[in-house]
Specification:
The complex is a heterotrimer of chains A (178), B (193) and C (198). Chain B contains nine helices and no strands. The two termini of chain B are 17 Å apart. Chain C is mainly α. Chain C has one domain. Chain C is built from eight helices and two strands. Chain C has a two-stranded antiparallel ribbon. In chain C, helix 4 crosses helix 6. The chains are: A alpha+beta (178), B mainly alpha (193), C mainly alpha (198). Chains in contact: A-B, A-C, B-C. At the B-C interface, helix 2, helix 4, helix 7 and helix 9 of B face helix 2, helix 4 and helix 8 of C.
């Protein structure tokens, strides 16, 4: 019995030390990780809504609870709306594909950027290349926004198509009327 | 959530994203315990059992302990401890209640703790944001996929034993090349989902 | 045993990858490019170094009955720390390695060294052992990564090797290529070792 107590205490000590060490490491790296991902998002929206000088995150349940939508930002130019940047996602071949879609004016796609993906290297990850993503530029949200799939990477291309479509629908259904 | 989405999860875990042949999870038992069909079937059964149980418990641990306390960074430690104690518990229970089952599964159980397919599965469940039902079906699919791959592989290896191959290729090298051919065949399922 | 011998045996004769075939999952999964392989090798080596040091320091304090759970907690702590550091400073690498970072916990190489070496030897010896095994592991990973990257992408560490006429063999970057490349490399390694034994 004493033996079991002793073993329990030792295991407890080791686990709590490890918990403390991790807690400290976490509080140290957490800020850096957050800052980095914020920077990434900011530079992405800045390049998608070029004209805007001020950005605001949309915190509206009606918007954020929609299927495949993760985050949405609005960009203002001299106080009036210049465009939207919408972070949406869809299931690809290797996992989730997350994209940022820029929509300006009355519904023109200003660009699409892949934020994170885990598609097959050499095949599916071609969706991150400009030669594919630039096909979205200029598409109208009121029409079909999808583009032709990359051959050999249909599932990955479809994921981007689905995510962009979700963003376009969000614009058509809600954001356009703001 | 609908019946069809569960079906997709199941088929995808068994064939398209087969844990062994396309995700590279659980390679150690796949190469180590696949010399005979019978033993590989036993390993498959033991893994199926542990995977399903571990998925349910880690799901609860994530939702009601880690998320609640905001200590998601303890995930790896908590999950591996859950799996290790679960394996130990299962071993004790089987030993007491069913000596027959213990004889056929017992030797594989300690090996499962370090089977990365189990830990990998529990982490993937959380990453994919599955709910409890989806988690269970993902676990079952992953386990069937693992069993299917290891049993098929064992059947091939039984025959490989009798083949005359260069001495350098004996053992792991030829087994890996065989696994490569199998994985090539499984890529044919890619369009399924 | 001499330190130099402890160090060198991990590199060739007891190579964790080619001879012992330990930690096969990351070996196959993240070696599609030389850079990813190097990152994985370094991450594993750091965890191995940390766990070997702590376990050799605690070896008299940990009762043998509960040594495995203790080892696992120590290893998991280092793995989580390495994961956090990678996420903060090397986000691209972190994303490429993905789930295989937490899975370093179940790399049999690390638990194996804790059990068979660090729990029985001095701290200095354990550090040497970790460095030898870690470098042997990293070397093997990078070698496999180079082979797969050259054939699969036509590059090494992202440097273009061939002219435009080179058609990369995409299969090499995918699962079947990983299995086959490792199989062939192992056979080559066997051949070298056999020749030496004779």
């Amino acid at each position: 019995m004493r033996d079991i107590m002793k073993m329990g205490v030792i295991l407890l000590i080791i686990t709590s030390v490890s918990g403390m060490v991790l807690g400290m490491t976490n509080s140290f790296t957490e800020g850096i990780i957050m800052e980095r991902s914020l920077e990434e998002v900011l530079s992405s929206i800045e390049s998608l809504i070029r004209d805007a000088d001020e950005f605001e995150m949309i915190e509206d349940d009606e918007v954020l609870s929609r299927n495949r939508i993760r985050e949405a930002y609005v960009g203002y130019e001299n106080g009036s709306v210049a465009g939207f940047a919408i972070k949406s996602y869809a299931q690809g071949y290797g996992g989730e594909v997350e994209v940022m879609v820029g929509i300006i004016g009355d519904g023109t796609i200003s660009g699409v950027q892949v934020m994170s993906q885990s598609e097959t290297p050499g095949l599916g990850d071609k969706i991150t290349e400009d030669s594919f993503l630039e096909n979205y530029r200029g598409n109208k949200t009121a029409e079909d926004v999808s583009v032709d799939a990359i051959s050999g990477a249909t599932a990955s291309s479809d994921a981007v198509n689905n995510a962009v479509e979700a963003a376009a629908d969000l614009f058509e259904d809600i954001l356009k009327n703001r | 959530m609908s019946a069809s989405s569960i079906f997709v999860i199941l088929i995808s875990a068994i064939f398209v994203n087969n844990f062994v042949l396309s995700r590279f999870l659980g390679i150690c038992p796949f190469l180590g315990v696949s010399k005979k069909v019978e033993t590989s079937l036993g390993m498959g059964m033991a893994v199926t059992f542990v995977m399903t149980m571990a998925s349910i418990i880690t799901f609860v641990a994530q939702r009601f302990i880690l998320d609640l306390l905001g200590i998601q960074y303890m995930q790896t430690i908590v999950f591996i401890l859950v799996i290790a104690s679960l394996v130990q518990l299962v071993e004790m229970v089987i030993q007491k209640t069913s000596p027959v089952l213990y004889q056929s599964l017992g030797v594989y159980l300690p090996l499962i703790t370090t089977n990365c397919a189990v830990l990998g599965l529990t982490i993937l469940n959380i990453q994919n944001e599955y709910n409890l039902v989806e988690t269970i079906f993902h676990a079952i699919g992953a386990a069937i996929g693992f069993t299917l791959a290891i049993v098929l592989f064992a059947a091939i290896r039984e025959r490989l034993e009798l083949v005359d191959i260069p001495v350098e290729f004996k053992g792991f090298p030829i087994a890996l090349i065989t696994a490569g051919l199998m994985s090539l065949a499984f890529m044919g399922f890619a369009g399924l989902v | 045993m001499k330190l130099s011998k402890i160090f060198s045996r991990g590199l060739v004769m007891d190579n964790p990858v080619f001879i012992q075939a330990l930690g096969m999952c990351p070996i196959l999964a993240v070696t599609n490019t030389a850079f990813n392989s190097f990152g994985m090798g370094m991450a594993t080596t750091s965890v191995l170094l940390g766990s070997n040091i702590v376990i050799s320091l605690l070896r008299k304090f940990i009762p043998s009955k509960i040594r495995i759970p203790c080892f696992i907690v120590v290893i998991a702590t280092f793995v989580t720390m390495v994961g956090m550091i990678l996420e903060a400073y090397f986000p691209a690498l972190n994303q490429a390695l993905g789930i295989f970072i937490p899975l370093i916990v179940v790399n049999c190489l690390i638990l194996g060294r804790a059990e068979s070496f660090a729990s029985k030897n001095s701290t200095v010896g354990s550090i040497t052992d970790a460095l030898g095994m870690g470098l042997g592991f990293t070397g093997a990973l990078v070698l496999l990564g180079i082979v797969r990257e050259v054939i699969g992408f036509g590059t090494v560490f992202d440097m273009q090797l061939f002219g435009d006429s080179f058609e990369p063999m995409a299969l090499m970057t995918m699962a079947p290529g990983a299995f086959m490349a490792l199989g062939v490399l192992m056979a080559v390694f066997n051949r070298i070792v056999y020749a030496r034994l004779k």
